[in-house]
Amino acid sequence: MNRKKITAFQLCVLAMAAGINVVGGQLALLLRLPIYLDSMGTILTGALWGPWFGMAPSFLSGILMGMTTDIYSLYFAPVGMVMGFMNGLVWQRWIWKRIGMAGNGKAMIWLWALAVAIPGTMVSSVICAVVFGGITSSGSAVLVQLLAKTPMGMTAAIFLVQIVTDYLDRALSMMVVSVFLQALPVGIRERIRVQNGH
What we know:
Helix content: over 70%
Number of helices: 8
Number of domains: 1
Largest sheet: none
Shape: globular
Oligomer: single chain
Strand content: under 5%
CATH class: Mainly Alpha
Mean pLDDT: 84
């Protein structure tokens, strides 16, 4: 994470973030949604404390879900970790500087979500194609199977579906986290700003 001592508050937030990921992921599975809803906790911790903290909730929730309700989550945990790392970088280098805690420039989140989504999409496409042949528990697997029957083939179908669903999922999650952070009391927001040096 970083060389500073990890506080009890940070550990509690990490645990809560992993729980948010699990609940969101289960909701998406239950409703067979084409997006995943399993990254809001990851995006929250990355926004608060940077890329190394951003990796932890996806690792924890991937193991938890993989060992209990959805084995696919275990295989896709590295995707969430890559996404969490990129998200932490984006928040540290751009979003906090442009948006800060005031919420100005939210429209740019839709652009920054691409920077967060693309590296994870590349990793998830490889896992989906090589390990699972395009068939996973996600609602988007139906779209992959339909597009794979077209001339584009399985690999291109997986990447196309993944980039669209990943982008929508990340953009939505980043927007929700941005709104949540702006809704925090002024004292907490100032403490976060000072902790992160913004």
